[in-house]
Amino acid sequence: MTDTQAVRDYLLGLQERIVAALEAEDGGRFLSDRWTREPGGKLEGEGLSRLIEGGRLLERGGCSFSHVRGRALPPSATQHRPELAGAPFEAMGVSLVFHPRNPYVPTVHMNVRMLAAHRADGEIVTWFGGGMDLTPYYGFEEDAAHFHATCRDALAPFGDDKYPRFKQWCDEYFFLKHRNEPRGVGGVFYDDFSELGFDGSFAMTRAVGDALLAGYLPIVQRRQALPFGERERGFQAYRRGRYVEFNLVWDRGTLFGLQSGGRTESILMSMPPAAAWRYDWQPEAGTPEARLYSDFLRPRDWVAPT
């Protein structure tokens, strides 16, 4: 049985818990921006965008909830389910990206979502997606291992195959093909997931959402007081350029939102506050910047599977 109200209640509670924890860490306040889409357009529904800019910890951070309905699934949602092309749909989720001020604190992204398509024969086809991934500017082995161990442990109750499978999916998905490099050190990612039935798939998605704070806050607390200067900020801006490239060129979530007529301001809330590009630049050998490429921006088994 599909209980969309239970999914909605969970997602709103998750958003509130995450925002409260980051406010406590940052010392600043997230603004609340409620929005609605009235019937008659490509989408109808509502959402709640939570955003902080210029914080002590977070230079920019967004955590957005949306619950929308549309007349026809966009192409980005049916590339693996062509039989549902054109079907009316309902989608809800929480998506977040936190861009810290200190270059030694990594950017983190998380998304958990449910999508339900209404077939012409009356059947409702429901699936889940989600995951979380880490994008460091300066690499620390213990941070990557902790983040991956948190992902592994969250998925362990749902089968020994889930973490290795979703880690590989994450490594392959968050990859800039035009640069031939990963976006960061990965994490876990899954989409079009329904193999555990509604209840089991929803429970797995809750486990992923609930793991975000345990995976990220210890890293924040270890790194946020490290001193930095213009060199580190410049490299952070350069690497943030890669983040922009991925989101605008390859990210299915961004494409889904824009193709379905979603709220542009909320969709692009994931963008960093500042980014930079350099022509044909390479880090100097032996530097911490070079080590990011040699030791971290490549698929690795950061922890052993369960």
TrEMBL record:
Cite a single GO MF annotation: metal ion binding
Pathway note: Porphyrin-containing compound metabolism; protoporphyrin-IX biosynthesis; protoporphyrinogen-IX from coproporphyrinogen-III (O2 route): step 1/1
- What EC numbers are recorded for this enzyme? 1.3.3.3
State its cofactor: a divalent metal cation
The residues responsible for catalysis, as annotated, are H109 (proton donor)
Tell me which SUPFAM superfamilies the record gives: Coproporphyrinogen III oxidase
* Family classification: Belongs to the aerobic coproporphyrinogen-III oxidase family.
Q: What is this protein called?
A: Oxygen-dependent coproporphyrinogen-III oxidase
Please name the source species.
Methylibium petroleiphilum (strain ATCC BAA-1232 / LMG 22953 / PM1)
Q: Which gene encodes it?
A: hemF
